[in-house]
């Protein structure tokens, strides 16, 4: 893996030429969580296929476009469709859009994902504020030869998720009467779902939810000294003693039903920043 300064410049200049000027907040939308784009005023869209050196989303329910506009008076750039290791991409590909959004000017990053509830006190349809994570993806988006050209090689992750934005979201959730769980997110490669034994292992090592994304983006955001807040929409319950076959369409349905609460949290946080 290697990252090219020229590629980053070409991608950024293309988006600036389309009107992506000085966004304040970047937002990454997870599986089944695309309704937030309806809140964007005066949107400008760039499909991933049009952006130089951008990967292409291959998952059928990830639409694959970058959208620039305004939410609650703030300029935002939104990734509708993210990239995953299970699509065959490497860590540099998966996190490339984070570096581009940073170069466009964002100073805050919001991330959402759909995840399975490992903590059996959590139920499908809950939202979990990610307080910490466990990287089980077998690699790092900073493990490439010329990483020092783009920031520190050895990045501190003692507090990967911004405490200030986390506290604001907790306050907003209380005010809006939205139940907001808090916990640890474990990232695996996928795309297969976990076995009963793997769910037991995930619980034993301290995870509350499991998914196939987010952690690479968070690591790169910390590499860029970019404050980040992340939430998981919990779409299934991972009880190894009562495990049922997973229905992906059911996961998408739960994500769609829960998303309005997530949108409320994000839009209120944008308003307060």
From TrEMBL:
Protein name per Swiss-Prot or TrEMBL: Purine nucleoside phosphorylase
| SUPFAM superfamilies (alphabetical) | Purine and uridine phosphorylases (SSF53167)
Which E.C. number(s) belong to this protein?
2.4.2.1
Q: Supply one GO CC term from the record.
A: cytoplasm
Q: Name one GO molecular function term.
A: purine-nucleoside phosphorylase activity
Which species?
Answer: Maribacter luteus
| Keywords tagged on the record | Glycosyltransferase, Transferase
Span of domain Nucleoside phosphorylase: 24-271
Q: Which family does it belong to?
A: Belongs to the PNP/MTAP phosphorylase family.
Q: Does the keyword Transferase apply?
A: yes
Cited CDD domains: PNP-EcPNPII_like
Q: Which Pfam families does the UniProt entry name for this protein? A: PNP_UDP_1
Q: What processes does the entry annotate via GO biological process terms?
A: nucleoside metabolic process
Function text: The purine nucleoside phosphorylases catalyze the phosphorolytic breakdown of the N-glycosidic bond in the beta-(deoxy)ribonucleoside molecules, with the formation of the corresponding free purine bases and pentose-1-phosphate.
- Asked if the record carries the keyword Transferase, the reply is yes
Q: In which pathway does it act?
A: Purine metabolism; purine nucleoside salvage
């Amino acid at each position: 893996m290697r990252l090219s300064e020229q590629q980053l410049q070409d991608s950024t200049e293309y988006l600036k030429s389309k009107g992506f000027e000085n966004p304040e907040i970047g937002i990454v939308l997870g599986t089944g969580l695309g309704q937030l784009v309806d809140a964007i005023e005066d949107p400008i869209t760039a499909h991933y296929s049009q952006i130089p050196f951008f990967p292409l989303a291959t998952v059928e329910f990830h639409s694959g476009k970058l959208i620039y506009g305004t939410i609650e008076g703030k300029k935002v750039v939104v990734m509708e469709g993210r990239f995953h290791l299970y699509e065959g991409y490497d860590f540099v590909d998966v996190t490339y859009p984070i570096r581009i959004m940073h170069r466009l000017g964002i100073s805050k990053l919001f991330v959402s994902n759909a995840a399975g509830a490992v903590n059996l006190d959590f139920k499908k349809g809950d939202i979990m504020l990610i307080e910490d994570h466990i990287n089980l993806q077998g690699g790092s988006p900073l493990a490439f030869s010329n990483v020092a050209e783009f920031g520190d090689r050895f990045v501190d992750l003692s507090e990967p998720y911004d405490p200030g934005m986390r506290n604001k979201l907790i306050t907003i959730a209380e005010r809006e009467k939205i139940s907001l769980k808090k916990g640890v997110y474990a990232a695996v490669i996928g795309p297969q779902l976990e076995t009963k034994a793997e769910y037991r292992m995930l619980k034993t090592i301290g995870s509350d939810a499991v998914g196939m994304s987010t952690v690479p983006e968070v690591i790169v955001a910390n590499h860029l000294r970019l404050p980040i807040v992340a939430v998981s929409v919990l779409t299934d319950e991972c009880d190894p003693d009562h495990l049922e076959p997973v229905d992906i369409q059911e996961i998408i349905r739960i994500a769609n039903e829960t998303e309005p609460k997530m949108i409320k949290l994000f839009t209120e946080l944008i308003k307060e920043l």
